[in-house]
Amino acid sequence: MPELPEVETVRRGLEPAMQGARIERLELRRPDLRFPFPEGLAQSVAGQKISALGRRAKYLLIHLENGQVLICHLGMSGSFRVEHGDGAETPGQFHIARSRDQKHDHVIFHLRSAGQEPLRVVYNDPRRFGFMLSTSGADLHDHPLLAHLGLEPTGNALSAEALATMFANRSTSLKAALMDQSLISGLGNIYVCEALWRAGLSPRRKASTLVTRAGQPTPRAARLAQAIRAVIAEAIASGGSTLRDHAQTDGSLGYFQHSFSVYDREAVACPRAQCTGTVKRVVQNGRSTFYCPSCQR
DNA sequence: ACTACTCCCTGCCAGC
DNA sequence: TGCTGGCAGGGAGTAG
Fold it and tell me: Reading across the β-sheet that carries A50-56, which strands appear in turn?
């Protein structure tokens, strides 16, 4: 499921095909995804050159020469793929899986770069939880979808001190707090479970227990900050290796097979050295949580 | 302000 | 074999 690392991998995978290319035509094959496409979207982007591909949290941002920005979300099942020329497979590039279910190809960017064969970037999304909206670059950070996003879980900004500030007086669970996009933006169910496992913290622990009365981070907060950054950094690196190893991909850019320590591993032995526990599944806030009750406290 | 719940949508899979 | 129901999940919306 596309969380921040997957979206970043998609961004990097699309960049060579899209950056600097001109949109000859935007083909919308239905009126909506999760939300209706903006009025006049196809007309407004036709002929525009793509100046950059960006990302904020789980949002892919397609910046156009005229200042317009397409805000794309992959939802749960969204993926992109790149098709070259007339659709023939191109060795060493993302190739077409002819057998792929094409009825969920909802959006097609028809692109052309100077001196290159035309190509298509196809957005496929069976469950249509994704969406594609448009805003002006000047309004981007005030857009309702982006304005309230919290810290990116990459880099040093996500510190023990930052966690302490977020978690002070929070009575909710660590799991729910980490899933809250207004606190940390970009974590989803998988990486929250993995980060909590790595930090040895129970997802059921109250978020406020990582903060002292004086508002300072406890050692647990430091462990958690470190675990989140490591899990995200490793997942992005893993996505990068998936991109390099595209001989094994089917050409789609959306989400990848990773091996997880606890996620979706109910009843499996905890992989931590010296731990004899078993991974358990519980439901928190309507979502599955996987953790080891033995070493996560 | 904070918390927790429902809903959207389709594909997949276990159980009958 | 074909049906049914549960589950997956991000985020908007809503209610308390």
Answer: A50-56, A59-64, A68-73, A131-136
Cα A106 to Cα A79: distance, rounded to the nearest angstrom: 11
The reply to whether the CB atom of residue A76 sits less than 7 A from any atom in nucleic acid chain C is yes
Residue partners of A28: CB distance under 8 A and separation at least 6: A37, A41, A42, A106, A107
Q: What is the DSSP string of A157-171?
A: TS-HHHHHHHHTT--
Tokens of A3: 């969380």
Residues in A 6-65 whose C-beta is less than 7 A from nucleic strand C are: 34, 57-59
Q: Mind giving me the DSSP string for A236-274?
A: HHHHHHHHHTGGGS-SEES------SSTT-TTSBP-STT
Distance, Å, A187 CA → B16 C1': 38
d(CA A269, CA A264): 12
A103 part of the active site:
no
Query: Measured between alpha carbons, how far is A13 from A269 in angstroms, rounded to an integer?
Result: 35
Decide if A3 is catalytic.
yes
Higher pLDDT, A243 or A172: A172
Q: pTM for the full model?
A: 0.91
Q: Report whether pLDDT(A98) > 50.
A: no
A293 catalytic, yes or no?
A: no
Span A96-114, average pLDDT: 76
> What CA–CA distance (Å, rounded) separates A113 from A239?
26
CB A61 within 8 A of CB A69: yes
Distance A73 CA to B6 C1' (A): 21
Strand B close to A256 by CB, under 7 A = no
Choosing from A11, A58, A170, A223, which is the catalytic residue? A58
